[in-house]
Design a protein that fits this description.
Strand content: 15-25%
CATH topology of the domain at 18-66: N-terminal domain of TfIIb
Radius of gyration: 15 Å
Largest sheet: 5 strands, antiparallel
Order of helices and strands: HEEEEE
Shape: globular
Structural class: mainly beta
Helix content: under 10%
CATH class of the domain at 18-66: Mainly Beta
Length: 72
């Protein structure tokens, strides 16, 4: 009898309203954000943080952001 391991495929990122992307800034640096559609994140290169987007809503809390790895 073999056990199957269910590995969930990553869900595609929900789309974010382009008008919202135009006005959002990094809460740490107040600088520009880049939208990474594939990862579902807003990237602040200046702060080296990636803010998650959940259900189409950017989570703009520094404590919820992940730190960018070197070269990212």
């Amino acid at each position: 009898m073999s056990e199957s391991t269910d590995v969930a495929a990553p869900e595609p990122a929900a789309e974010v309203d382009p008008r919202l992307l135009e006005i959002l800034v990094c809460p740490v640096t107040h600088g520009r954000l880049d939208y990474d559609r594939a990862k579902g994140e807003l990237i602040s290169r200046a702060a080296r943080l990636a803010y998650p987007i959940r259900d189409g809503v950017p989570i703009m809390l520094p404590e919820e952001a992940r730190e960018l790895a070197e070269g990212e």
